[in-house]
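Q: Here's a chain of 318 amino acids. Please give me its 3D structure as tokens.
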Amino acid sequence: MTKNLLLVCAMCLPGVLSAQSERVELLPYGDMERWTTRIIKESALLGGATKEVYHLGPEQTINGAQPWVRESSDSPWGGSSVWASPVGIDKVSVTVFPEEREPGNRCARLEVRKETCKALGMVNITVVATGSVFLGAVKEPVKNAKNPQGKLDQGIPFTQRPKALQLDYKLQLADQLVKATGLRSSEIEGKDNAEISLYLIQRWEDEEGNVYARRVGTAYHKFSESVAEWQNGYRIPIYYGDISNEPCYTPEMALILPDGPRYTTNSRGENVPIQVVGWADADAQPTHLMLRISSGDKGAFIGAVGTCFWIDNVSLVY
């Protein structure tokens, strides 16, 4: 079944409004069909392995350790697969992969993986890396593990008011949480979940380069159970205005997010936090869209190693 036919079938499910009263629009590269492959050789000190790093973007191959810059392509997507170069030592972390869903159709596989860095044959650093894709970019090369959110440039210009996010997904959750922050790795109690967060904001910048925002629209969903079969046309509603007293509200929808502020690049080229100062009116028009799809919800360096979250046909519903 082709992807276009899948989208049509999803719109025909019981309880869904007719095609005459709504439209479903794929985000750019949201069909997960086209990927850029970067081929990067790690430093000889780490063994000199050659690895492939995948990004949603034009079908092309880039050789060598070069930053993935979203302005150089028409793709709005960034991801957790990155090139790091602390003290000039090249290291690659790969947690996002293209995968064949059926003959002729691809999807994305987001994994929670344990990345081990060996120097001269000895294990020096071990970290847990959670696979994710988001609208934005990573500031490469990554130089250290401090302030992970501060290394991301999140959000894209966007002025529309969709009513829902729609995608196809399936999920395999691993059981054991692992915390690995560098020199230490240990099993911990708790449960990991895949998650999707979407925030529509009104954003502006002051004369000092500080970036502020008001929240226009909010969507969040936690996936807490494994699902072996594809769930096509799954929808997550977007709520507008101040929802802090509504039944749908969860801590992940707060103005001050549990894992810290999101960052963006200001007009001076500096990566700065987006300071959310309040809720916008329910009928306000956004200036930017922020979307993150992740195979884990525990933040940096913690996850259930082996979890896989497959996604496809990421769209907005109007």
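Q: Can you summarize the key feature?
A: The chain has one domain: 3-317.
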